[in-house]
Write a structure and sequence with these properties.
37% of the residues lie in helices and 18% in strands. It contains ten helices and ten strands. It has a five-stranded parallel sheet with strand order 3-2-4-1-5, with helices on both faces. Strands 6-7-10-8-9 form a five-stranded mixed sheet, with helices on one face. Helix 6 links the parallel strand 6 and strand 7 (153-158). The longest helix is centred in the N-terminal third of the chain and has 13 residues, at 58-70. 30% of the residues are buried.
């Protein structure tokens, strides 16, 4: 059996009893960075064969994982921190396991994005996890543009050297919004700094960040400010017949055509 195992994102005590049980029973553990995972395993006196599974060898590692599973071995897959696959290696492994018909499951646990959402105090009823943005500014802005009109909190992962330019790009695409930068989650120096995009994030930038930005309000169609009759007339003047103008006006206003029909009688 193959297990994707969540590991702590900071405090080593944030690991589940089940995760420890799986790691202790595993025949082999595939790690994003074997040196990093060794610290966690040593803390809990777990000694197992460690193999690499990172973004540069994930395809090759997938074949080894499949072979181990087919031999009846118990395989654990971990990333450096948090949930494997989520902004970490593992998605290719999932696809390869599915294609090979090899069963796998997940051992849930710590998650930086959701922890940061709570610490930010931004709206949590609906949110969109975006993860890391592209390095190139034009590509970064193109991704941000896709989320500009979403009425929900946006969550990004960001390296310390990228946080300022990410905020700058977000401001240029979104305009001024409330935001929160969260770092060192569950650690001694944990902090969640709220700020306006126009102000930027003050202070020295250290540690991996989760950047949260409030959602945008849906932009109102300016035609909806016209009266119903004026709205229909606008489309007729654009060359549409009365039936098509009625249809387009109803779509703009989010109402049925029958609700607007009376406004066409005098046109």
């Amino acid at each position: 059996m193959v297990y994707f195992v969540a590991t702590p994102i900071g405090n080593l005590q944030d690991i589940s009893l089940r995760a420890l049980e799986i790691l202790r029973s595993a025949d082999v553990i595939f790690c994003e960075d074997t040196r990093h995972s060794l610290k966690l395993l040593n803390a809990y006196e777990i000694k197992k064969p460690l193999k690499s599974c990172h973004k540069f060898n994930e395809k090759e590692a997938s074949k080894k994982i499949i072979d181990c599973a087919k031999e009846g071995q118990t395989v654990a897959i971990v990333s450096d921190a948090g949930m494997p696959v989520i902004s970490d290696p593992g998605n290719t492994v999932c696809k390869e396991l599915k294609a090979a018909g090899v069963s796998y499951t997940v051992v849930p646990g710590a998650n930086a994005a959701l922890s940061a959402l709570i610490l930010s105090a931004l709206h949590s009823d609906r949110f969109a996890f975006v993860g890391f943005l592209p390095d190139k500014e034009s590509e970064r802005k193109a991704v941000l543009e896709k989320y500009r009109k979403l009425d929900m909190t946006l969550i990004f992962h960001c390296a310390p050297q990228d946080i300022d330019r990410t905020i700058c790009s977000a401001y240029s695409v979104f305009g001024d919004r409330n935001a929160c930068a969260v770092r060192e989650i569950t650690k001694l120096h944990e902090e969640a700094v709220s700020f306006k995009l126009s102000e930027g994030l003050k202070g020295e930038k250290r540690g991996e960040y989760v950047l949260l930005i409030e959602g945008g309000a849906e932009e109102e169609n300016p035609l909806n400010k016209l009266s119903e009759e004026e709205h229909i007339l606008y489309y007729i003047k654009q060359g549409f017949d009365k039936k098509e103008a009625l249809k387009k006006t109803a779509k703009d206003r989010g109402v049925s055509k029958s609700a607007l029909y009376k406004y066409t009688i005098n046109i």
